Amino acid sequence: MKMIKREPTVRQLVMLVWAAVFVVIFFTFLPEEGFTLSLTYAVINTIFYAFIIYGNISFLYPRFYLKGRLSAYIAASVLLLVLVGASRCFIILTVHNVLSSDAPEEVTTLRLVNYVTACVLIFILSFVFRIALAYFTVKKQSEQILLQKSAAELSLLKSQVQPHFLFNTLNNINYVLYREAPDTAVLIERLADIMRYFVDESPKDRVSIAAEVKFLENYIELERIRIRFQTEIKFGKNYTESDLVPPMLFMTFVENIFKHGIDKSGNNSITISLRQQNGYLQFETINEINRRDKAEGISGFGLSNLDKRLKLLFGNAYYLDTREDANLFFAELKIPIT
To answer: Which CATH homologous superfamily contains domain 229-336?
Structure first.
């Protein structure tokens, strides 16, 4: 039986690094200080090193430096190093005086300066640590995107039964219907366009916004024929057609409007907006809430899976929000334009 090779996660790699740091510190002190004191020093130093590194890369760097507050970042960093260095000096000397049989050592100005100076090196290494974390995180995200793409392509291949045969057949049916039922012929043409989009465009990493919009419009028009009650659909568009987006990114919103946002007991109003603004593409939908579906516990909307996909594609450079106001459901997605 073939064993499946599992790649370590970023968290596992980080834990391995800290375990290595602990072991190195422990064996550095062991020849002179003995087991108990070396173990204690290793624990204390590892904790303080972690405090410096994570204090910088998780708090000071994103909160001050990335926001352009350089002076505040420098001041906060100096304060961090002084507090950590002084605390480490007092704690280590206290432990030494309690556990060691040697003569007690006092806290002097020179000792404090040495401990604070040693913290500066750890502070500099925190940037290397941050770069390494970013590299492994991006590497994992890239691997996940490739796996999802491969899975989608495999699923698509399994569902394709001679697609070109189907396209040719639809075109022939379309040609016949144009004489007898032109409205039906238009619908079949839209269906063919949707199928062609699935086959030719969806496997790509990026498609033109124009192709994505045409796909949505075809889907909306096909959904209209299933709805037997009054529905008003407005689709506002303002974008550059040549810009690229991931395929089927907006489909989740539109599909779920027709699945869960149509009330069969009355009139319906759907507003869809796609506009380009300040380097971002903003997609919004507004629809009336189907109280019957909500009362029966039909939730769906598939936004959790969409959110995971967006994280893989854009990291944190996107905005996704849904909310209810009175009897309306609002959904908004904003992504950077590539």
So the answer is: Histidine kinase-like ATPase, C-terminal domain (3.30.565.10)
